[in-house]
Amino acid sequence: MSTKVAIIASNGGLFDAYKVFNIATASAATDAEVAIFFTFEGLNLIHKEAYHHLPLPTGREHFAEGFKNANVPSIPELVAMAQEMGVKIIACQMTMDVMNLKKDNFIEGIEVGGAVTFLDFAKDANVSLTF
User: Fold this and answer.
1) b vs e for 82-95, b when ≥16 Cβ sit within 10 Å of the residue's Cβ?
2) Could you give the C-alpha distances from 28 to 33, 42, 54, 81, 86, in angstroms and in order?
C-alpha cells in the first residue's frame, strides 16, 4: 500500500502556496498519493488570476528577490508540476458557494467537492497537514 498525504490549504499567501505545493510535489515524487483540499483563502492558490499575484507577508517583501535569485519555480509552475505528478486538487464547494465562485474561476483540472470528498481520501492517510 502506498503512502497517502492529505493536505488542507486554508491560507492564501505566497508562503502558504510554497508550503502546500513543495510538500505536495515532494510527496508525489516519492510515489505517495496526494490530495489537497483548498478552502477559504486557500482557494487563491488555484484561482486563475489570483495565483499569479499571491501576497507576501507584510515586512517580507525582500523575499521576492530571493525567490527570483534562487530560481524557485513560480506558483503556476508548481501547480502544473503537482498536476502532472497526479496530485488531486479539490476546491471546497461550500466555500465557493459562500464566495460566489464557479469552477470556471479556477485552473483547469481541479475537482470540486465538499469536506466529505476530502475526508474519504484523508480517512486512511499516513500524513495529514494543514497550511
Assistant:
1) bbebebbbbbbbeb
2) 6, 20, 24, 10, 7
- Whether this prediction's pTM lies above 0.85 is answered by yes
Find all residues with CB under 8 Å of 18, minimum gap 6, and list them.
Answer: 72, 75, 78
Give per-10-residue mean pLDDT for the chain (131 aa): 92 96 97 97 97 92 89 94 98 97 97 95 96 94
State the Cα–Cα distance between residues 48 and 123, nearest whole angstrom.
30
Of the candidates 62, 59, 4, the residue with the CA atom closest to the CA atom of residue 33: 4
> What's the pLDDT score for residue 84?
97
Q: Quote the pLDDT of residue 73.
A: 93
State whether residue 99 is helix, strand or coil: coil
The contacts of residue 13 (CB under 8 Å, 6+ apart) are 41, 54, 55, 56, 57
User: Is the alpha carbon torsion for 72, 84, 19, 61 positive or negative?
Assistant: positive
Report angle CA 109, 110, 113 to the nearest 5 degrees: 150
